[in-house]
Design a protein that fits this description.
Layout (H helix, E strand, L loop, with lengths): L8 H15 L6 H8 L3 H8 L2 H26 L4 H16 L9 H6 L7 H27 L9 H20 L4 H13 L15
Length: 206
Amino acid sequence: MPDVRHFDPDTVLEAVVRLFWEKGVAATGIQDVVGATGLSRSSLYATFGGKHQLYLAALERYTQQSSTPFLRRLAEDGRGLPAVFDFFCALIDVRCAGEYARWGCMISNAYVGAENTDADVRAVLEYQHGTLRNAMRSALATARSKGQLHPGADVEASADLLALVAHGVNLRSRAGVNAPELRRVVTAAMEGISSSRRSPAGFGDT
């Protein structure tokens, strides 16, 4: 058996995250992983197991390094609706420009992939969706206390709505929809729950 101590598993897993994130699970074979990491199949199997175990490890790493910190900042931000606007601004920026443009979100991508039928993958996805929804709910509860929500806006339902909008931004950006169009959709959703029925100046600009 190869001596797996000759490589850094964290570095390898980071390369695997990028591969699955950009290409998707169905389009990624073990040979692609071999090519991206420079490791032999035997070293990969000895360290991570098969493709399924490798994908699960990559998905968990993505949530820990990308999704969870992003959502924690939203949940802990005490500004209410401005925090939600900033969340969507940052989300659209990273999905439409820069190194990871048009890659979407590894979590949202998995929801529409065949991997969604796997119980282990589904558990990760549902946990992350719950984290997203709870972060939205926390921000909206703050917004309610500050008088920023429309009187008819329901915090629970609005949190569900905005969580779905976030998934939509992820998936639509991967499909090539541009930033101004995504901003218009988010602006409409936010204006629907805002007490002023207006979004921050410039958010919906093209």
